[in-house]
Amino acid sequence: MRRKLAAILTADVVDFSRRMSEDEVGTLASVRQLIDGAIQPAVAARNGAIFKTMGDGILAIFDSPVEAVDCAAELRRCAAEASLGLRLAVHMGDVIAEGGDYFGDAVNVAKRLEGLGQPGEIVVSGDVFRAVRRKLPLEFQPRGPQRLKNIPDEVEVYVVLSGGGDPLGVAPSMAAPALRRAGPAAGITDRASIIVLPFINLSHDVEQEYFCDGLTQDITTDLSKFANLFVFAANSAFTYKGRAVRPSALAEELGVRYLLEGSVQRGGKKVRINAQLIEAESEQHLWADRVDSALDDILDAQDDLVRRLVSVLNVRVSAAELARVARKETADISAYEAFLRGQELYFAQLESSAENETGLLQAKAWLEKAIALDPDYGRAWCFLGYLQMNRVLDGWAGEETAREAEEFAKRGVSLRPDDHDTRWALAFIYSSTGRPEMGLAEYQSAVELNSNEANMLAEMAETLTALGRHDEAVAEVHRAMALNPHFPEWYRWMLGWALHHARRYAESNAELQRILKPNNEVRLIMAANHARLANGEAGAWHRGQAKSLLVDFKKRRPDWSIERERSTISFRRSDDESHWLDGLRAIGLEEI
Fold first, then answer.
1. H or E element at residue 247
2. Residue 326 — pLDDT band, cuts 50, 70, 90?
């Protein structure tokens, strides 16, 4: 028994069991021809060796991760030519050699990584990515850290792309949109990119965590109002909270140019903010500042900090942008703190799996307190309207609450017409109550005020889809994903919905299949996609998938029908409504 450092490649034929059930002899012949005629020569040409062959795949070992990934790219191309889909993965690490076989975590991780891939994808670990990224003419799409079954530590995951950005060997209709790196790779090279990492709470009081996170959110929002900055979403930044991350690692993972990090210390009526600006790739510290402020003046101090930071970044700013950042939401620090409490509870409810409105009602109470302390707090009025509309959509409240939500949002807009948050809330309410044209007008006003708000862009896509502007909807979700690389799963839902109505069914399912916890609406879209794809040579398989998804859907909504579905949708184009409902009829959803 001996140990060695090696790269492990796994390859597995997609839908092998189904293919065998339909044509055992033909499937075995095709797979054997692929292994003997393509896989074995490709592995040998790169100084590798196949050490295990299964009926539907192989395990191979290489001394070099570069040769392993190059081999995987070649195998994907060969499989596509043979009309066989492969899932491939590469990981590197210490292995144990025994009797011609290899064991160890490196082998186990490679197998688990393969299971994360879609047909035609090559999945690699972060270790492999760093070893090969400048040595092969390939691009990589980050998928972030992932939990793998029976593997104790999270593993960074990347998908190997071709030079053009699409998965190699996959037909265009099957290729998932490539995010690549979210800064320059997203085509935004003319704007300095920055991420505001969560400020550290030095107050020795966990109760002050909401205050510290709120300041981080607000600094991110203030920076995002400058059109010449590309500001990564706070959602993505908070995935790094509590983790020691090297700036150069963020430069690799996100393509970000600068990062801002710091700390907040609050004692009594005084607050100290420490901040430092770092060039990510070189890890050079460019600027540092400390602000000591009375608690009542903290918002002024925050504005001053942002202005100085923008000056250091040498960003061109307009007078209107400076005015929007300098204009105070509220002068009452107690109202500001109450707003932060409400915001914290609202987002906690979104992230929880609780099927009750307790968190929303608690958030509502804090927002109402903020408004009672400062009746002119426009942002609080709008956030309350946004929250109330969500209570309606979740089934916790009815039409009276919807009317109330609209009144709150309009009050907020009247108080702060130049704030993207107030416009956003009103846009959401209009769109959620069957007025997408009015909703889109407000969304567009909000985007003009802040083009860096990722969640708003992803949400706007649903309104664009309702108006029949499907390709625009797809583009907005991709834009949101670039701003928020660690985006929540509902982005994929919005993208899959838009792609379905753009008649890009395979791409839609490629996105929706990546949702770890699909809800019933996602199942219905996927079933409709399969129904639309059932005319090709894989028609029987697609029809089987559609039927299975409908069965899962009906377990949760046994009384659902075409008529019930029609009452929940709002399309401006009749052909879009017909297209959707005809797809549901095709999968077997009943009329009544």
1. helix 247-254
2. low
